[in-house]
Amino acid sequence: MSELDGRPAPAAPVIAPWVRTRLRAAPGAAVALALLVALTACLAGAFPRAVDRYEDAGLQHALRQARPDRTTVRVQAPQPDLSLPPERRAAALRPATLRRQYEKVLGAVGSPLTVDRAQSAYGVTGTVNPAVPDPWLPRPTGLPAHVSLTARSGLAEHARVRTGRLPRAAHPVDGTTAEVEAAVTAATAQSLHIEVGSVVHVPAPGRAPLAVRVTGILVPRDPDGAYWSTVPLLRTPTLVTLPTPGPDPDRYWLGALLLAPDAAPALLGTSTNPARYWHLAPRLSGLHAHDVERLEPAVASLESGPALQRARAATDYGADTGTELDGALASFSRLRSGIAPLVAVAAAGTATVVAVVLLMTGGLAADRRRTELALLRARGASLPGLAGRLLAETAVVAVPAGALGLAVALLAVPAGRLAPAVAAALAVTLTACAALPLRAALAHRTVRLTAPREDLASIRPSRRRAVAELTLLVLAAGAVATLRRRGTTGDQLVAVAPVLVGVIAALLLLRLYPLLLRRLSGPAGRLRGALGHLSLARAGRAQASAVLPLLALLTALTTAAFGGSVLAGVAEARDRAALLTVGADARADASTPLPADTPDRVRSVPGVRAVTPVGISYQAKPQDGQDAVPLVGVDPRGYAELTARTGLGAFPADRLAGRSGTLPAVASPSVASAYGTRRPFLVRLEDGSAVTVHIVLVRDRTPAVPGADFLLVDRAGLPAPAARPTTLLLTGDRLHAGALRDAVGGAAVRIRAEERARYADSPLQSGAEHVYTAAVATGAGFAVLALLLSLLRAAPERAALLARLRTMGLTRAQSRRLLVLESLPQAVLAAVGGTVTGWSTIRLLSPGIDLTAIALPTAEAPSPGAALRPDPWSLTTPALAVLTVTVGVAALQAWWTGRRSSVRELRAGDGR
C-alpha cells in the first residue's frame, strides 16, 4: 500500500537471467558445444599421459635389457685394516655391523632414485678366487677348479632348499675357524659335481686349509632378479677359458660357495682378500622418464660426488661405488631425444587444428547472433559487459564438459603425470570459453547500423596484416634454416616449423585466391549457362574469416603428409635393415657343410619359392696373410637372381663364368682396395687348399654376408670341401620358422619378418608410433570438422539462394552442380596447397631429421640410413579426402534443401 494514497505499489519488473534464457533458446547448440569441449579435453588430457606411459615403459624396458649386473649400484669397501685387533676386524664383517651400515647407505641415495630393498643385499665376498686342491672336482683340461666365497644376506628369502638345509654358524666365527658351512645352487652343484656333505678345502696362508662343508643345494626363487643377477656367478658357475695358444686352450671351473652371514669373518683367515659390499638395486617401477634429467645427477653423485662421501662416512673411507646405470640412462635419453621431436610435430599440428576448430565454433556462434549482438550494442550495451555475458554463457557449458573430458582421460590412461593433463584440458576449456566473447568483441567493437562486406574479393589487406605476415614468414624461414643446420636435437623447433610453414602457406593462398578467381572469371564467362559465372561469384563472396578453416586444412594436411612420410620411412628403414641382416626372406646357417638333401627338404616347406645354397669360408686368407675375408661360393645364375630380387649388389651371372685356373670374383670395396683389381691373387682356404681369384666386379653389399668384407666366386671352381653349401638363402611368403628348423636340422634359422619385428619390440618406439598415428588421425578428424563448420556457416545463405533460384527455374541437378562448383575453388585450393605445403615441408626439413632412432632401437642393427622422404600416398590421400568431403557435403546440402519447402527461406525480413 502506498502511504500517500493507499493504492498498491507496482510490482517490480522480473528480469529473466541471461544465461538460463540463452541456454533455453538454443539447447542444441549448447549440447554440441559441450560434446565438442568434452571430446577435445579428453584427447588433450590423454595425450601427455600416453606419452608418459610409453616413455616410462621404454625406460623400464631399457633397464631390464641392461640387466641387473649393470644397473645395480655396488658399494664396496676393502677388508678392515690389518693393524686392527682381530676382534675388531671380525666385528666389522659381522651381519649386525653390515646391517647398520646398509641402512645408512640407503639414506645416502638421493631422490628420485629409489632402492628395491627386496632385491638389494649386503655381505662379504672374496675378491680373489683361489684354486682348490680337491681331486673330485671336475678338471676339463687338468686345471683345478676355483671357488668364490660369499656370505650374503637374505639367502633364506631368495632361495628354496632342494636338498639338505641352509648353512649356519653354531659358534662365533673368526679368522682362525677351521670349518664353516655353505650352500650352492643347483646349477653349481650339477657342474662341479657337488653333493650335500661334500667338503671343499680353501687354501689359507700359514695354516691348514679352511674346510667348507656343503649343507644344502638351493634353487633361486627369482633367478633373473637383481639379488641373483647382480653377480651371476652366485647362481651359475662359469667355465673360464685362459688365453693360451693352440686349438684347445686351458679351462677351469669357477663356482660360488654361499656361506652363512655369521661365517663371514672366516674369510679373514684365507687368501681370498675379503671385501664388504652393499648392493643397491634400483626399483624399476619407481623410475619415470621425466625424472631422467634428475636421475643422472643422482647416479653421478653416488659415483663421485656428495652421495659417495656420505656412503664412505657410513661404511669405510676406502669404499668405492660402481654402476653402469648412468650409461643405460644416457642411452635411453639419446633414444628419447631422437623420438620426442617427431612426436611433437604431430602434437603441435593437432593442437593447431583443434585450436582453429574451437575458434571457428565461437565464430560460427557469433555470426549466427550478429543481429542480436548488434542490437544490444545499439541499445547501449558496453563491450566489456557484452563479452562478460557471453563468457558466462559459454563457461556454464564448457567448464563442466571440460571437467568431464578430463575425468574420462584420467580413467582411460591411468598412468602418467596429472599436471600436464590438467593443463592441457584447462587450455582447451579456456579456449572454448574465450572464442565466442573474443569474436563478438572484435566484430562489434564499433556500433554500426549495417554489417560491412567481409568477402575475400573486396577486402584489401591492411598494413598491419602485411607486417604480421612478414613476421611469420621470417620466423618460419629462421626455424627451417636452423632445423636444417642443427637437426632435431636441442629443442622443439622441429615441432613448430611445419605449423609455421602451414600458416605462411595459408596466408599466401588467401592472397592468391582473389587473383585466381579473376583468372577463372574470363573462361567461365564464355561458357554456356550461368552456373559457372554464378558459382565463381559465390566463391568470391566467401568471408575473409575463411583463413581459419584454410589454416586448419593446411596444417592437418601438412601434419598428415609429414606423419605419413615418417611412418613410411620408419617401415622402409626396418625392412631394409632386416634385409641387410638376413639377406633374403629367410636363411639357414650351419658351422659345417649341410647334408646333400637339405635344399630339397627345404623346398618342400610351404611358402618357400626358391632356395639358393651358398658355401661360406669365414677364415679364407688372401695372399696367405693374417687377415681373414669371407669367401662365398655360389651358383652364379641362382645367386644373381637373388641379388636382383633383393637389390643387394646385383650383378650379371655370366661375369662369374670360370676361367682356366683363375676364378672371377665379386668383392666388397674394402677387399678390392686392399688386394687390387688388376691382377689375380691367391686365397688360402681353411683346409689348407688354395684358389686363385681375380676381382672383376665391386659391390657394396651381398645377401650371403651381412658384413662389409667378402669375396664372391663360382663354387663349381672351389675344392670339394669348400664347395659344399653351409648356408641356404630362402625366398618365399609366410615362412614358418618351426617347419624350416625341422627341415634344416641343427642349422640356425633366421626369418626376415621376425628380424623386422625385433626392431619394433621397444615400448618407446612402438608407443611413439601409436601416439603419432593417433595424433595425426585426431588432427585429420578435427580438420574435417573444421571443413564442416565452414560449410555449416554458409548453409543458411546457400539454402536461401537455392530457394530463390528454384523460383526462377533452377532444377535440382543444377542446384547440386551450383553448390559443388561454389565449394570447389576453396577445396581445390586447400587440397593442392596442402599437398604442395606438405611436400615442401618434408623437403625443407628432411636434411635435419634422421629416423634411425625411431626405426632401429638396437645398436647392433645395421643402419641403412633412415632419411625422411615424401610419401606419395601420404601426400595425395588426405587431399583427395578433402575434395571428397567437400563435394559430398555440397551435394548432400543441395539434396536436403531440394526436399524442403522454400516458404521459410523466401520470407521477407529474414536476415540471410
Essential attributes:
single chain, about 900 residues, 30 helices, disordered C terminus
What global shape is seen?
flat
Number of E-type strands: 21
Give the mean pLDDT.
82
Percent of residues in helices: 40-55%
| Count of individual helical segments | 30
What is the radius of gyration computed over CA atoms, rounded to a whole number of angstroms? 39 Å
* Derived structural class: alpha+beta
**How far do the termini sit from each other?**
51 Å
What does the main sheet amount to? 11 strands, mixed
Low-confidence stretches: 908-912
**Beta content:** 5-15%
Describe this protein's structure.
The chain is α+β, with helices and mostly antiparallel strands. Helix content is 53%, strand content 13%. The chain contains 30 helices and 21 strands. The strands form two sheets. Strands 1, 2, 3, 4, 5, 6, 7, 8, 9, 10 and 11 form an eleven-stranded mixed β-sheet that branches. Strands 14-17-18-16-19-15-13-20-12-21 form a ten-stranded mixed β-sheet. It is flat, with a radius of gyration of 39 Å. The relative contact order is 0.10.
